[in-house]
């Protein structure tokens, strides 16, 4: 570990707390994908930041701990009563929780002891944001419903306009171009691979809505029936890092009407083997804490995909003052989510590349302040050391709702968080 990891965090968005735990700032991580725009921290952090949290003093790490300890006896009694009423499957889930709990507590304690990152944490929502840039999201009704748009019969005819800005270097003022030209390209937006192969992010237009496309990225927007179009003709062009965030059946998601969910059996048809690179792939699957789901993944989904389980990572969620977003032992609303990791063998089964990979440490914890509902932090960089095959890695996210430089994003709304209202232009800083 570095003696002072803070300068590295300011650049990378990753702060190493100890050997098995890190704190991450998703905004800093995402902003490495952009040159002309950047993600607005005030719109990313739309939850768990309020006037109380953001101004609470973090000079002492005892305040969050004291707040947690003050409820320990009540939680212990609640847990005792709850365990007595758990069914067999819930008892298995509780045992899983008890096994990982020490790692979560150790990671959280490391965060509370890192006073330098706590000071940064409470200002994340306004970090590097001048007053005129610190905006709030407009009403959701102003969003373009990509799922509804892709479901109508006219969808194959809809086109997206890609605007490429070329700076005029002929006339410059103190190093800054005085003018730029715009090159426009028009391409089908659904059931089509839309790519930005340049080294600058671009602005795209669809039905009077603007979207920011990261550098060196592409998306394929379709429903599950069209995912086979993503399969490469040659496995040497396949993906060696596959991240999947399925819309699992979830009562909470239905109540909030945020996105439609799918029955578990639908995910059995995902062509994971066909998407793999010749040398194989590391697969990262987001799952909830429901034991029924874990059982389905271990006994049905991974075997069908040809994936061998390797390790589990955990995303621990905190508020702006460093305390957990919920009680750790609250059975149905625990403040963490699980990322299951496994390997899928490629066609080149005799290369031995999987055997030469760094072993994945189990029970690693990454901590962050959550963004919008269902929005996962970009964790690809934490996985690169364990990816087999070519470098740089060929990365794909399935059921994606945003884009990252160097990645392919597939789903029925990969542009959701690319809406321009989530961004600010860097030109306002000059």
Automatic annotation (TrEMBL):
Start and end residues of each stretch annotated as Disordered: 50-92
Originating species: Capsicum annuum
Molecular function per GO: DNA-methyltransferase activity; methyltransferase activity; snRNA methyltransferase activity
Taxonomic classification: Eukaryota, Viridiplantae, Streptophyta, Embryophyta, Tracheophyta
InterPro entries listed in its UniProt record: MT-A70-like
GO biological process: heat acclimation; methylation
Family, as annotated: Belongs to the MT-A70-like family.
Family matches, as PANTHER family: N(6)-ADENINE-SPECIFIC METHYLTRANSFERASE METTL4, N6-ADENOSINE-METHYLTRANSFERASE
Stated name of the protein: Methyltransferase-like protein 2
Bias kind Basic residues: ranges: 72-82
Regions of compositional bias (Low complexity) in chain numbering: 51-63
